[in-house]
C-alpha cells in the first residue's frame, strides 16, 4: 500500500491528506467493506477499548505506518509489515481461531489439507498441506513480540500465526488479500473443529478417523484396536542412506575443501559465525585434553593462521567422527557448495523414495533426526538420485534438540510435535544406543539393518527391518 492510498493524520488527529481516487481493487477499503470483518470480531486497527459496533465511516482511517502508533502496536502488529512487507494485517479474535488451538494443547502447529478453501491462501493449492504456527498467549500483547517474530522467521510460507486461546494474526499483499485470506482461514479453522468433533482428522488427505490407540470399554478386557502411527522419525546414516556415502563421500569432501571454503568465504557473516562456534568448541576441547585440538589464533594474528588452525581442528574432528554442532554447521556449508556445483549427489536406498511418498499420501508425518545440521539434511534430501524428496518430509531435527543417545532428546521431539502419547511416534535408526534412548522416552524404536551397518548385540529386543517396505 502506497502513501497516496492512505489518510495521513497529524499528531492531533486532523486529516492532512486523503487518498486519491483509484479503480478497484487498488482503492482503499470503505466502511462497508470493513463491516463484515467487524461482524466477525476482526479488526484492522482501532483505539484500545473503542466499541466495534460504534464504527462509523468518518471514524475509519488507514494510517501511514510511519506515524507513531504506540509502542505495543508498533512492536507486535507491525511485525508482518516489517518482516514480510505486508500491505495489510488483520488481527482476529474469532471464536474458531481460539478453539482450534485448544484441540491439542501441546501442538505447535495447525495443519489441514485437501480442503477447497486452502486455495484462497497465498502459495497454496487444494492438495497442499496448510501449516499455521501456534504461539502461546501471554497476559499482555506486547509480550508476544519475540515469539511472533520467531514464528514468522521459522515459517516463511505462512501468512498467519495463531495465538493459543487468543486469536490469529493474518496478513496479505493488500487489504483485499488479507480479508480474503482471513475468510478462508476462519472457514478452515471451523472445518477442522467440526471434523475433530466427528472424530475425523483434518490433517490427512482422506480425513479419516483420528489415529490413536482405542481401548475396549469391556471391563477387564485385554483387547485393543490400534490405529496406524501418524509420526515417523528417521535417522539418515545406515537408515535412509548408506553409511559409505557419508564416510567415503561427504566427509572426505568436507575435509578436502575446508581450507578452500574458509579462504573464499572468510569475511562473510556465516563463516565468521562458524569460526566463532569452532573456537568455543576447541577451547573446551583443550581444557578436556581432546586429542587433535590445537588453539585457534585471534583474528588479529591474520587470516592465514586462523584458517590453518581451523583446518587442523576440523580434520581431527572428522577423523574422530565427532557429533558436535560446530563441526556439523561448517560441514553443511561446505556440502552446500558441493551440491550447488553438482560435485555432490546424495544417495538413498532404493526403497526410501517409495516409502516416503506412500507415508505422505497416507497422512503420516515424516521427520528426520540426524547429527548432521538441518542444512545438511535438507541438502541431502533435496539432491538425491531419486530427485527432491523434501516434499515428503515435514521437518528436520539436529543435535540442537539434544544428543541422539539421550532419552531427553526424544522427549523434546515429542513435545515439539505436540504428541500426547510418545508410543504414537516410530523412530527408525541403525544405532542400538539411539534405539534404547528412544524406547526409554516412550517411542516405538525399530532398528534398520542395512549393508555396512554395525552388528547388534545379541538379544537386543528390538524389531528390525531391512527395507522400509516392511514398516
From TrEMBL:
Pfam families: Aldolase_II (PF00596), Hydrolase (PF00702)
GO function term, MF aspect, one: lyase activity
Ranges of residues in domain Class II aldolase/adducin N-terminal: 52-193
Keyword Isomerase: no
Biological processes per GO annotation: L-methionine salvage from methylthioadenosine
Domain of life from the UniProt record: Eukaryota
Record carries keyword Magnesium: yes
Keyword list, A-Z: Amino-acid biosynthesis, Hydrolase, Lyase, Magnesium, Metal-binding, Methionine biosynthesis, Multifunctional enzyme, Zinc
Coiled coil: none
Alphabetical list of CDD domains matching this protein: HAD_EP (cd01629)
GO CC annotation terms, alphabetical: cytoplasm
NCBIfam families noted in UniProt: enolase-ppase, HAD-SF-IA-v1, salvage_mtnB
Protein name per its UniProtKB record: (thale cress) hypothetical protein
